[in-house]
Task: inverse folding
């Protein structure tokens, strides 16, 4: 993979020392060791032409002199003849970009067990791949600005001032054996424009292109490894990565243990203290895994790695056996099939960059090099498999056919008026629901019940958050059941299906996840006929593939369909966006009156977020003191965790939501911090058991959540997303007893089932759609923030939501400016869009033969050996 990070102006000296470091007082586990065990310099090499370096005053080539690199990072000429580039608005000169190219773990495993010759060959493939990727970055990404006809326009650089440092271990901590991890740090300090002027490198385009550049690097590395005789195959999440064939999961896990220890130690420090460790503090943390005798020299380190690999069947002989003299033959047909499948996995419409990324990611498994993969994209268009839309974006013929088929089926079913629910039965059902609620249904809710129980075989119900869609569904389902029909409730997420059963009691015992229900239909394991109506809750979260499969199964058996949702809330994770379009093609009702909160100002804020006017909403929350700033993201997490605990002192834990729209790692950070604070307060004490796959431990009193379904003998299974509280711990058997939210049902979770649990204080916003609580605390403001996320986060709570944001996530010198930046992020929509919402271009635009040509890397000097390259600390 490749990651990109900015090097701040004030960090140039320290970063340069890190890259060149001789580790003044080396400790065990801090490895920049030579063959004799002495600290050695991690030699770097320039990825810039000698001519370009000479123009800025550098004559030493290809080895990087530390003073030369530091001068470039500071914006100075290395020969001392003045500044190379102007200062920014604040008077500083940014240090540049740190691009880290990390080889897949299987490559590092094979490197670790290889002899010196094998290591040098693998390092050569790594260096060639990095050089090619940097050249691709230079020729493909607009890292600078040029003036054209009086206007400033983004442009590619003529040259990059870039240096590479190859390291061969992951970071270690005191007392720990480091994992082998072959990776390259490339520091890009500045760019040379076509007119010869020098400028700072624009970081944002590099961040945007990071996935594509990383895919290019991996495809180049895979090609180099195949040239050495290693076979490559697709691997990793969504098959986006590759591995060397023959290296299994166990060796990869073995050589990731220490890296995981460092990560866990860091996370545990954050959980205990609510901040990141300062310099030196991480070294003092207790590490669980200890080696009886840590290696003192490079030779001892190598011996330790090889012994660990041999324990998993990868000795020196096996390393040689992984290589073959028979070259793998390219498989363009398999590659094309993979590209067509994966490029629309997340969205129906994509751009050129996304297409190139997927093409490069899928190249290693088909034994294609980068040139053949990129050139193959023209053939996908010529064959009509990739289509150009009227706005220049792209889709696939397969996705467009799927969307057209779903729309046609739904439209045809919508013309079928074969259902019959007597008006008197409907009226009785409405009265029953009104008696349960203690108040009458609103007029628009009554009209919606009439539509949903009318004759049409397919209908849709839309509505803003908090408008009482569940009440309408309860009345409609009661009416259908009362006249002898059957009803089934389904949702993409298990928790959403359960919430449907709780909000609409008529569905109790009649809810399923969408996938489970379709599988049951196709196995003839459930009854479905013309007297069955299937209600799809939160249909906007259903991707096109799932909705098409469900609709086909219902149609073929004569059933009816009710689609329920809000197109302005969270979109599907996979390619979707069809719900809003289908609403327009079948009889539909829309609920607009919000009942969840009686606070008019709060309702106005929700409406503003929904309609894309977050500035109005954030002004409301700031005026009420419900928009809180922290200097860093870690501090924002800490403040949110503490506020969550304050609120749970006044409300039941299940009535307070702690949400983030960032990564699962932040969910874990929130969970760990809340648990640590509760331990410090004495709320949870005593024994604990390990749960989940994230090294969490649960005590009696902890909140937990299921991350996958769990079967319970003789009882309904527990769905993914269900929450509860640990009641008791059996220390001897390592089992837990958990009380589920809502139902109050208690069940025992055996040790072997505890892997399905994780701490459940916090959750990602995607798990919150459809939920209603009293109060919500939200951490937001990062790049993941969007219009849909903000609307769902705000509208979960009856009595108010509090927002916690980090200043370092938002540009601006003052908080008022940062509020504007936050509003800008909340204005951006990530809604799904079906490809059929766009017309095709009348004629396909052919790709010029040289469109996918790439700049070639500089001629490379003889490679340093593994020993002189150094290893990371």
Result:
């Amino acid at each position: 993979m490749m990651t990109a990070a900015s090097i701040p102006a004030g960090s140039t000296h320290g970063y340069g020392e890190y890259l060149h470091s001789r580790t003044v007082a080396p400790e065990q586990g801090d490895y920049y060791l030579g063959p004799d065990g002495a600290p050695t310099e991690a030699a770097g090499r320039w990825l810039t032409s000698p001519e370009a370096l000479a123009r800025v005053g550098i004559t030493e080539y290809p080895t990087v002199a530390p003073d030369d690199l530091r001068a470039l990072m500071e914006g100075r000429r290395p020969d001392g003849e003045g500044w190379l580039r102007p200062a920014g608005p604040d008077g500083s000169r940014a240090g540049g970009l740190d691009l880290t190219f990390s080889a897949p773990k299987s490559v590092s495993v094979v490197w670790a067990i290889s002899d010196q010759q094998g290591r040098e060959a693998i390092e050569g493939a790594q260096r060639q791949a990095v050089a090619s990727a940097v050249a691709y970055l230079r020729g493909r990404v607009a890292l600078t600005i040029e003036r054209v006809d009086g206007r400033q326009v983004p442009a590619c650089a003529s040259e990059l001032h870039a240096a590479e440092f190859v390291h061969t271990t992951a970071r270690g901590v005191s007392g720990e054996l480091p994992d082998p991890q072959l990776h390259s740090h490339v520091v890009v300090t500045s760019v040379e424009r076509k007119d010869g002027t020098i400028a700072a490198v624009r970081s944002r385009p590099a961040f945007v292109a990071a996935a594509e550049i990383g895919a290019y690097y991996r495809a180049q590395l895979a090609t180099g490894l195949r040239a050495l005789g290693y076979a490559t195959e697709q691997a990793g999440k969504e098959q986006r990565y590759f591995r060397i064939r023959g290296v299994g999961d166990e060796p990869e896990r073995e050589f990731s243990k220490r890296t995981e220890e460092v990560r866990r130690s860091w996370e545990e420090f954050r959980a205990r203290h609510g901040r990141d460790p300062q310099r030196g503090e991480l070294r003092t943390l207790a590490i669980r895994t200890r080696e009886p005798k840590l290696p003192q020299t490079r030779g001892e380190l190598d011996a330790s790695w090889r012994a660990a690999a041999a324990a998993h069947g990868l000795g020196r002989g096996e390393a040689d056996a992984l290589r073959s003299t028979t070259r793998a033959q390219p498989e363009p047909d398999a590659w094309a099939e993979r590209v067509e499948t994966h490029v629309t996995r997340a969205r129906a419409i994509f751009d050129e960059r996304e297409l190139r990324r997927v093409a490069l990611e899928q190249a290693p498994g088909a034994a294609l090099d980068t040139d053949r993969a990129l050139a193959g994209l023209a053939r996908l268009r010529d064959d009509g498999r990739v289509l150009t839309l009227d706005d220049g974006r792209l889709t696939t013929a397969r996705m467009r056919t799927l969307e057209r088929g779903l729309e046609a089926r739904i439209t045809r079913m919508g013309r079928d008026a074969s259902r019959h629910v007597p008006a008197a039965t409907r009226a009785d059902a409405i009265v029953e629901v009104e008696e349960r609620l203690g108040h009458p249904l609103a007029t628009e809710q009554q009209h919606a019940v009439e539509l949903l129980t009318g004759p049409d075989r397919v209908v849709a119900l839309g509505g803003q958050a908090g408008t009482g869609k569940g009440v309408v569904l309860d009345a409609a389902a009661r009416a259908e059941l009362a006249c002898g029909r059957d009803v089934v409730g389904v949702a993409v997420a298990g928790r959403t299906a359960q919430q449907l059963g709780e909000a609409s009691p008529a569905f109790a015992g009649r809810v399923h996840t969408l996938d489970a229900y379709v599988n049951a239909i196709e196995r003839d394991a459930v009854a479905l006929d013309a007297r069955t109506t299937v209600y799809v809750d939160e249909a906007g979260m259903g991707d096109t593939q799932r909705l098409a499969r469900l609709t086909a199964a219902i149609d073929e058996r004569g059933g009816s369909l009710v689609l329920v949702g809000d197109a302005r809330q969270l979109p599907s994770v996979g390619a979707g966006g069809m719900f809003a379009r289908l609403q327009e093609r079948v009889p539909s009702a829309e609920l607009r009156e919000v009942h969840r909160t009686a606070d008019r100002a709060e309702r106005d804020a929700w409406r503003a977020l929904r309609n894309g006017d977050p500035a109005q909403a954030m002004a409301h929350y700031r005026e009420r003191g419900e928009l809180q700033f922290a200097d860093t993201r870690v501090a924002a997490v800490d403040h949110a965790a503490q506020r969550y605990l304050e609120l749970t002192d006044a409300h039941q834990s299940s009535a307070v939501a702690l949400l983030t729209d960032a990564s699962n790692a932040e969910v874990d950070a929130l969970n760990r911090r809340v648990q640590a604070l509760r331990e410090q307060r004495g709320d949870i004490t005593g024994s604990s058991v390990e749960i989940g796959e994230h090294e969490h431990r649960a005590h009696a009193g902890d909140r937990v959540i299921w991350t996958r379904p769990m079967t319970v003998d003789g009882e309904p299974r527990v769905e993914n997303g269900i929450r509860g509280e640990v009641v008791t711990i059996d220390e001897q058997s390592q089992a837990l007893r958990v009380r589920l939210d809502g139902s109050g049902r208690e069940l025992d979770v055996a040790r072997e089932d505890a892997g399905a649990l994780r701490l459940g204080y916090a959750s990602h916003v995607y798990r919150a759609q459809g939920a209603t609580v009293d109060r919500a605390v939200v951490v937001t403001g990062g790049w993941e923030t969007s219009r849909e996320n903000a609307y769902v986060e705000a509208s979960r709570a009856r009595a108010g939501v509090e927002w916690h944001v980090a200043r370092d996530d938002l540009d601006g010198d003052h908080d008022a400016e940062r509020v504007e930046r936050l509003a800008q992020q909340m204005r951006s929509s990530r809604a799904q869009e079906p490809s059929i919402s766009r017309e095709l271009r009348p004629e396909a635009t052919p790709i010029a033969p040289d469109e996918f040509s790439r700049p070639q890397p500089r001629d490379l000097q003889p490679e340093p050996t593994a020993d002189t390259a150094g290893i990371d600390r």
Observations:
- The radius of gyration is 30 Å.
- Confidence is low (pLDDT under 50) at residues 21-41, 286-293, 844-873.
- The first helix runs from residue 12 to 20.
